[in-house]
Specification:
The protein has 188 residues and is an alpha+beta fold. It has two domains: 38 residues; 121 residues, Pleckstrin-homology domain (PH domain)/Phosphotyrosine-binding domain (PTB) (PH-domain like). It contains three helices and ten strands. The strands form two sheets. Strands 1, 2, 3, 4, 5, 6, 9 and 10 form an eight-stranded antiparallel sheet that branches. The termini are far apart. 21% of the residues are buried.
């Protein structure tokens, strides 16, 4: 046999892509991702059901008085006080959104476009502090304004981040001053 024929006989064409197997893998992966998403959604709804004993959120009074402080930024969510990973999802408290906070002598008005607004009466405020994280959001030390408030028989931490982080210290000082005055007046 001549060497040319041997060379031709020894070569094989490249393997053709098995499109049926590849499409099967892509469809299987797509179904797996959809299943994981569905399970996460069901878990979120189940958490909301478990927190169904939380009373409805109060709305702002008709005349809350003049604004002491105003902040625009982001609402990052609410958790059980002291447990920064125990997110509260009932009544839309787990929904992240833009926020406009207004502090008046009546309390804290939380206006969230695209999500449920709520109002925290001054008597329900417990503490304000700077922190670095709340469920699903971790920032640098002091990058988050956390307001602790009572709702029903539960203490709640709500996390806010101002568009201008320098405002956080003034908010903490003013809120804690209001809380201390309220407690002092209530003790008399």
């Amino acid at each position: 046999m001549t060497p040319v024929i041997l060379l031709a006989a020894g070569k094989e064409s490249a393997e053709v892509t098995d499109w049926a197997a590849r499409i099967g893998w892509v469809v299987g992966l797509g179904l797996f991702v959809a299943l994981v998403y569905w399970l996460m959604r069901e878990g979120w709804k189940w958490r909301g059901t478990l927190q169904g004993d939380l009373p409805e959120l109060p709305s702002a009074p008709d005349d809350p008085g003049p604004a002491r402080l105003v902040l625009s930024g982001r609402y990052h969510g609410s958790t059980t006080a002291g447990q920064w990973l125990d997110r509260i999802v009932a009544h839309g408290l787990g929904t992240r959104s833009r926020v406009e906070l207004t502090l008046t002598d009546a309390g804290l008005d939380v206006v969230r476009p695209g999500a449920a607004d709520f109002f925290v009466p001054v008597a329900a405020l417990r503490e304000a502090r700077l922190d670095k994280g709340i469920a699903g959001k971790v920032l640098t030390e002091g990058g988050l304004l956390v307001v602790t408030w009572a709702h029903g028989d539960k203490l709640i931490d709500s996390g806010f981040r101002s568009d201008h982080a320098a405002e956080h210290n003034e908010w903490v000082a003013t809120l804690n001053d209001m809380i201390n005055k309220t407690e002092t007046e209530g003790a008399r």
